[in-house]
Amino acid sequence: MCLPVSNCCLCISLSVGAKIVAVLSLIVSTCTVLVYGAAAMLPPSSVRETRRISYAAIALAAGIKLLMSFFMVYGAFKKRPKLLLPWLLTAWFYSLVLIGLSLFGTVLMALQYVRDLDTSAEVSTMVAVYFVYAIVLYYFASVVNSRRNEMNRDVFTYTGHHLVGHRVLPKHYYS
Fold it and tell me: Which of 104, 68, 61, 100 has its CA nearest to residue 87?
């Protein structure tokens, strides 16, 4: 599902990269929940009802991602590969949805369904933002998935050598 990578951003180890992605995901999800949750609670006189519903849906999706980010932070820092999987599945799903929404917006603009200039500018901006966010999210998922595979390989290797029960593991395991 994800591309295997050997390091994050060409110079950071997968361990540090997964921790950075975890913290960034936690921060972005929290900010998204706060901003869109507040926008969804605006008075009906200032915002159309369809906008409020879409803001509430985005806030709900960000809330789910926030919950998965908590699991990922704990899993990344405590070396628990099973706890990275919920965030990975959520990231893959969100990437697919965002790319689908980008394609849908592009089709709307190509068919000239969006007629007025304000709505057209808003749709084109959202298409670009959703597409870029989907690509970045997919890359982050590739980094986290590679780290999860690395942790699974390490656990399997150390279990096979009967080192798990000992108090001292090789030093490179802690990096």
Answer: 68
pLDDT for residue 118? 67
User: Is-contact 128 105, C-beta < 8 A?
Assistant: no
Furthest C-alpha separation in the chain: 69
Query: What's the pLDDT at 96?
Result: 93
| Rounded-to-integer distance, Cα 22 and Cα 91, Å | 12
**Residue 53, token pair as written in the block:** 């519903």
- Residue 146 belongs to what H/E stretch? helix 117-160
Separation CA 148–CA 150 (nearest Å): 5
Pick the closest to residue 133 from 97, 107, 86 (CA basis): 97
Bridge partners, 8 (sequence order): 12
Cα(63)–Cα(42) distance, integer angstroms = 18
For the chain, the structural domain boundaries read 14-174
Collect the ranges in the chain with pLDDT lower than 50: 175
Q: Give the containing element (helix H, strand E) for 15.
A: helix 14-40
